[in-house]
Amino acid sequence: MIHKVQPSKHATSRRSFLRKGLTVGAAGATGAGLLTNGLSLQAFAEEGSDSLTKGDVAILRFLSAAEILETDLWRQYNELGGIQDSEVPGGSGSAAYIKDMPQYIHDNTEDEMTHFTFINAYLVSKGADPVNLDKFRTLPSSKATGAQHIGRLTNLMQLTVDTSWWTRYRSRTQNPDFGDTFPQAIPGLKNGKFPAIPRHDGDLSPNDHIQAIANTAGFHFGFIEQGGTSLYPSLAQRVTNPEVLRILLSIGPTETAHFQTWHDKAGNAPALKDPTNGLVFPNLNASPFGGEDFQTNLIMPEPTIFLSRKFPVVSIIRPTETEGVAMGAAKALTDDGLFIGQSKEFFAVLHQLAEEADAARRG
Ligand SMILES: [Fe+2]
């Protein structure tokens, strides 16, 4: 109960204070794309409503930050490998890069944009502060033809991709919530720093090099979206307000829809060795890979242990342990290399958002 913000005079005055503050904030945010469909943040704030618990606000704010970061990385993919249109503007494409999934990249990007835009608008409607990470858009863009030259929040050019999600979802006997660990599908991706987008036009050849970059992206898509797939149900267990719970239960499964799609697509990544750096994408259907742990047409979650080994195995999202999940997500994204080059202040803000979300308690 100590995290609950009581609906009091204090809360009312806090809301009106925030409303005034947001009038200025909304004007400043116009150029940052925070406003959609002609609705200003101020309009949302004017609706007023019962205040949320401190914990619910913290969970929504962490999710907003995560969605802003996801949007930033997906925009970079879309500029070079997706469809550039009025829904997802920016960039002009790179014909040599990803040729076979521009619609999916576009749609995934648009989904992430709507996730943070909605969550921020909802926070404002409850008199809470939205999240804005614009001052951390300092990382360089790709110099390859097709990319915009703007500051970024995330770095897709030095990734160390954890591909254990591939084997984790194929295991019938193990679950990360029981402390189990899982082998990498693409061990090379965990042992170095690799670009997932062309860094410059020199990366567009030879063919096995640009294909390796596209393959890296393909497995990175799965890594990112399985993270969201676990994050929402993990945090939902500590939400108090039924409407906030509804938000988490409605957005979370769209991350799972993305994950399932990318899980399927990653299986099409051709086996090859990048001649420029030795990165190997093995044939996952052949020895020493192959079998249920690796076979590429097995893309739905295998049933596995859940809660206790005394229960029968069940097909589930994994992990869903709630303790420390926000900081775990921040660490996973950091270990991925996404924030290479970011400032100390960026990490301080990210860690504070994660700490506050992890401190949230239901009720
Ligand atoms: Fe999302």
The general outline is globular
Structural category is mainly alpha
**Helix-strand topology string:** HHHHHHHEEHH
The major β-sheet equals: 2 strands, antiparallel
**Could you tell me how far the N terminus lies from the C terminus, measured between alpha carbons in angstroms?**
6 Å
Small molecules bound:
fe (ii) ion
Strand segment tally: 2
The protein's oligomeric status is: single chain
Number of helices: 9
In a nutshell, what does this entry contain?
It is built from nine helices and two strands; from the N terminus they run αααααααββαα. A two-stranded antiparallel sheet has the order 1-2.
Task: Explain what you see.
The protein has 363 residues and is mostly helical. It is 46% helix and 1% strand. The chain has nine helices and two strands; from the N terminus they run αααααααββαα. The chain has a two-stranded antiparallel sheet with strand order 1-2. Strand 1 (272-273) and strand 2 form a beta hairpin. Helix 1 (9-29) packs antiparallel against helix 2 (41-47), helix 2 crosses helix 4 and helix 4 (102-125) packs antiparallel against helix 7. The longest helix has 30 residues, at 207-236. The site of fe (ii) ion has 7 residues, from helix 3 and helix 4.
